[in-house]
Automatic annotation (TrEMBL), chain A:
Any one Gene Ontology molecular-function term assigned to this protein's record: ATP binding
Domain ABC transporter: 82-328
The protein's name in its UniProt record: ABC transporter I family member 6, chloroplastic
Organism taxonomic ancestry: Eukaryota, Viridiplantae, Streptophyta, Embryophyta, Tracheophyta
Keyword flag Nucleotide-binding: yes
Automatic annotation (TrEMBL), chain B:
Gene field: LOC115743066
InterPro entries assigned: Fe-S_cluster_assembly_SufBD, SUF_FeS_clus_asmbl_SufBD_core, SUF_FeS_clus_asmbl_SufBD_sf, SUF_FeS_clus_asmbl_SufD
GO annotation (BP), single: iron-sulfur cluster assembly
Residue ranges annotated for the SUF system FeS cluster assembly SufBD core domain, each copy included: 229-457
Name of the protein: Protein ABCI7, chloroplastic isoform X1
């Protein structure tokens, strides 16, 4: 059959210079209020801290009693890494509100998990933290080490130590994984006033990291995420984390689409980064990841809000009764 | 032999209106996609063309021998057609988006004196001179600047006038006037070509190393002088049955303030089962006019592959015509046009399939990164009545990086045969925001990310250049465009 040609694949043009990326106005300062004023979560958090259930960190009990609102940045010898208050955000294009007041505080060395039904806003929260242009912050604050994230471009947030692994990373045809990683790593070295690595020097640096994730060397020659299976994409995200390092890793559904072996590799790599200084915020839909990476806190997100925060026992309830039971607790 | 009947059923895409189904984006970039047929040209004598034809004839020595050489045959046929062809205007469909008035309004002067046989300026880097290469300067073949050592027996690369083999001259003579799809510029070349370079590959012969054709325009005027020296290089490639060769054409500009007009023609005849891989790199001066013709005839089971990267010239146009002479041919065309300056980059391609089981793949990409820059693409693929079981694909992708950057694309498949597999698509876009963000999220700033993505857009074509050194050179050229010093 002769197929009639069509131009249906033609797409509208977009002019670059029209794009207005990441120019969110600084939020009025009166928005930043002590965390206890608004949500039940933040007022509950200090209490939670005094009852450490998962004691990955022996010092936790000692620090948890410090009044956070009095010293918002320092907490004993533990530093506050990320503090999100009353954060609201909309889809930039449509104005649809997705995040409806999110509150969260993460200290150095902590592992947090955000759970919740599909569509509850978990990925949006992660993307807003790293400055995704699809969303616009309409209220609240996000402070990272005392700095306002809203004043920082996405690349500055990354260089400051924030790393998000994408739930669905994009393909970048024509750019090899090796070149991409090398570029990203050199951006870090520039920031640290260190000499950049040539492709050969970089190869020597990255090679051992592949082993860590049970990845073959030819992975580096392939184009970024192009034709990657779901599992390969996840491994690739973690490879990037391994290469670039991070103080706060936000892992969005790093477990979905992975078989048990792959999950073990990924979890092993993530656990490898955990130091008393590095923190992890993992977003998951499933409980099984929690068997591999133990969280100190579990937050349950529903309809753009964190409706509950607790310890690993929340997970047990979830397993038995689902998210509904949690939000009604 | 299949009749070249005028198509009665032409499947062309409906003429879409300006795409603006994305309301958010203001349409500052001008785009038009349309499909209409070329009206037949009316013939009359254009005084301007007449004058040009005379000037061209005067610039050449009168024929020496009484016997008509292939070059003289070309001249005769060309002057005939030239006199009935007017200078194209924007009203003529093939030049609707390509304004040639820049040439017409200049004082065109045919290059008359042959270039010195020893060129002082190093035309190429030392490692380049090791390659098999033919230097073509202002249309003349310069032997002293060429290196043709180590060619297999029976292979000839050089001026036809120096060829000693009678049979070779006769063989070329059989083909030279077998193409009648040309336009004014084709005829201008035919009248003004001072020399005919020939690449001849005998039956069954595989030429191991690529043959590089290096074109230079030595005679040039200064920017602002309004003088435009024109040269007409002409090359004929004959690959006999089962022969194989790689041809690399490089057009080099040198000093960016030099104005000239290069009007080259390359003809290729690929015999049965023959294989030609053709690379074409156009890096002319940003003040130059460059109008090129490539005409390819493919016999049964032959294959022709073109990889083009054009970035130079103020006005650059490539007229590409590929004609099937038998069944089971393979044709692959990959072209990349870059308009980073105030310039026009135009590809007019036509692929005519008249025999069964041909396979063709065409990919045309262009990047317009200047608000005064323009890319034009008219890509016609004709699948005629006897071309059953043809597999034809055509894809064009354009990247517009500045407001008011313009692209005019007219991809069109005309299908008359009914048992064929054809696909095509056209996409015009800016860089993907999600991809840019991915770079940023890994600490790479927007400017660097954009450069990497623009580079990778072109890489799909550039990576197909068979010669690694040519590929590297082109990559460096593109890097320079992205990062002007
Ligand atoms: N860019 C977007 N455009 C339109 N709607 C969006 C966009 N991003 C998220 N949403 C909507 O916001 C809600 C939350 O999405 P998401 O954050 O991906 O949820 P989760 O990760 O918890 O499954 C969903 O209803 C989704 O359709
Ligand atoms: Mg999600």
């Amino acid at each position: 059959m002769a197929s009639a040609p069509s131009l249906s694949t033609a797409q509208p043009p977009t002019a670059v210079s029209l794009r207005n990326r990441c120019t969110l106005p600084p939020l009025p300062s009166h928005r930043i209020r002590p965390s206890s004023s608004s949500s039940s979560l933040s007022s509950r958090l200090p209490t939670l801290r005094s009852v450490p259930i998962v004691s990955r960190c022996a010092v936790r009990a000692a620090l948890s009693t410090v009044d956070r609102s009095a010293t918002p940045v320092e907490s004993g010898d533990k530093k506050l890494l990320l503090e999100v208050k009353d954060l609201t955000a909309v889809v930039a294009e449509t104005g649809q509100e997705i995040l409806k007041s999110v509150n969260l505080a993460i200290y150095e060395g902590e592992v947090h998990a955000v759970m919740g039904k599909n569509g509850s806003g978990k990925s949006t929260f992660a993307k807003v933290l790293v400055g995704h242009p699809d969303y616009e912050v309409t209220g609240g604050s996000m402070m990272y080490r005392g700095e306002n994230l809203l004043d920082m471009e996405p690349e500055e947030r990354s260089l400051a130590g924030l790393f998000m692994s994408f739930q669905s990373p994009v393909e970048i045809p024509g750019v090899s994984n090796a070149d991409f990683l090398n570029m990203a790593y050199n951006a870090r070295r520039r920031k640290l006033n260190q000499p950049e690595l040539s492709p050969i020097e970089f190869w020597a640096y990255v090679y051992p990291k592949l082993d860590l994730l049970n990845m073959k060397a030819d992975f580096l020659n392939r184009n970024v995420n192009e034709g990657f299976s779901g599992g390969e994409r996840k491994r690739n995200e973690i490879l990037q984390l391994a290469v670039l390092g991070a103080e706060l890793s936000i892992l969005d559904e790093i477990d979905s689409g992975l078989d048990v072996d792959a999950l073990r590799d990924v979890a092993k790599a993530v656990n490898g980064f955990l130091t008393p200084k590095n923190s992890v915020l993992m977003i998951t839909h499933y409980l099984r990841l929690l068997e591999f990476i133990e969280p100190s806190y579990i937050h349950v997100m529903e309809n753009g809000k964190i409706v509950k925060t607790g310890d690993i026992s929340i997970a047990k309830t979830l397993e038995k009764e689902g998210f509904k039971a949690i939000s009604e607790m | 032999m299949a009749a070249l009947a005028f198509p009665r059923h032409i499947h062309t895409a409906p003429k879409p209106s300006f795409f603006n189904n994305k309301p958010k984006t203001k349409l500052r970039t001008r785009i038009s996609v349309q499909s209409s047929l070329t009206p037949p040209q009316l013939g009359f004598s254009d005084p301007f063309v007449l004058e040009l034809a005379e000037a061209l004839e005067d610039s050449l020595p009168s024929p020496s021998s009484s016997k008509l050489s292939p070059l003289e045959k070309i001249r005769d046929v060309s002057s005939e057609t030239l006199l009935s062809t007017p200078w194209p205007s924007r009203k003529d469909e093939p030049f609707r988006f390509t304004d040639t008035s820049f040439i017409k309004n200049s004082k065109i002067c045919p290059v008359s004196r042959p270039p010195p046989q020893s060129l002082e300026a190093p035309l190429a880097s030392p490692e380049d001179t090791q390659l098999l290469h033919l230097a073509i300067v202002d249309g003349h073949i310069v032997d002293s600047s060429s290196n043709m050592s180590g060619l297999p027996d029976g292979v000839y690369v050089g001026s036809l006038s120096n060829a000693t083999s009678e049979s070779l001259v006769k063989r070329v003579g059989e083909f030279v006037c077998g193409f009648d799809w040309g336009d004014l510029f084709w005829s201008i070349n035919g009248v003004g070509a001072p020399d005919l370079a020939v690449v001849y590959v005998p039956a069954g012969c595989r030429v191991e190393n690529a043959v590089h054709l290096r074109y230079y325009s030595v005679e040039a005027s200064d920017v602002g002088s309004n003088k435009l020296p024109v040269s007409n290089p002409r090359v004929f490639v004959v690959v006999e049955k089962g022969g194989e060769v790689d041809i690399v054409e490089e057009f080099m500009g040198g000093d960016p303030n030099r104005c000239y007009w290069a009007n080259p023609v390359l003809e290729v005849v690929v015999g049965e089962g023959g294989k030609v891989r053709h690379s074409y790199v156009q890096n002319q001066s940003p003040c130059a006019a460059h109008i090129k013709w490539t005409s390819v005839r493919q016999d049964a089971e032959s294959s022709y592959q073109l990889v083009e990267v054009s970035s130079g010239g103020k006005l650059s146009r490539h007229n590409l015509h590929v004609q099937q002479l038998g069944p089971d041919t393979v044709t692959e065309l990959s072209t990349l046009h870059l308009a980073f300056n105030e310039q026009t980059q135009d590809l007019h391609s036509r692929l005519v399939l008249d025999y069964p089981r041909g396979s063709s793949r065409q990919l045309h990409k262009c990047i317009v990164a200047n608000s005064q820059g323009q890319a034009v693409f008219d890509g016609n693929v004709k699948v005629n009545r006897y071309a059953q079981q043809t597999d034809a694909g055509q894809l064009t992708r354009s990247l517009l990086l500045e407001p008011r950057a313009t692209v005019n694309v007219k991809p069109n498949l005309q299908i008359i045969a009914d048992d064929v597999k054809c696909s095509h698509g056209a996409a015009i876009s800016d860089l993907e925001e999600s991809q840019l963000f991915y770079f940023q999220a890994r600490g790479i700033d927007l400017k660097t990310a954009r450069k990497a993505l623009v580079f990778s857009f072109g890489a799909e074509v550039v990576s197909q250049l068979p010669d690694a050194s040519v590929q590297k050179k082109v990559e460096n050229q593109i890097r320079e465009l992205l990062d002007p010093q």
